[in-house]
């Protein structure tokens, strides 16, 4: 297995993001359209938080009940800043895949934004790590 491989080699660079002014409706649309589970929240390319699909599910019974009325009420009650993780764990592009894997193995979230000079440049997820490790065999 390769040693000291930087996370920049496997991170997603083409990011789908939201701003704090976007709505939870916007978040749900992006999750479903892009088949993703994590949305970095940015202001002027600077990371200010992360919202996950599971965060959205925690506040909504919409997927369980298929009733849009419940979704509308819940989505109108909360904002992106209320739901997002405001101080997400971040790494630089030079962090190793091993370091990121060790971090994710100890926490309950499944993505880490990659930041360089205060600018969001990528995101690495447990799925990215699994694909990398599968390719090693």
Automatic annotation (TrEMBL):
Alphabetized InterPro entries for the sequence: CBS_dom, CBS_dom_sf, Diverse_CBS-Domain
CDD domains per the UniProt record, alphabetical: CBS_pair_AcuB_like
Q: Which UniProt keywords apply?
A: CBS domain
Signal peptide positions on this chain: none
> Cross-referenced Gene3D superfamilies, in alphabetical order?
CBS-domain (3.10.580.10)
**Entry annotated with the keyword Cell membrane:** no
Tell whether Ribonucleoprotein is among the UniProt keywords.
no
Provide an example Pfam family for this protein. Answer: CBS
**Alphabetical list of PROSITE patterns matching this protein:** CBS
The CBS domain covers which part of the protein?
Answer: 11-70, 84-137
- Protein's name in the database: CBS domain-containing protein
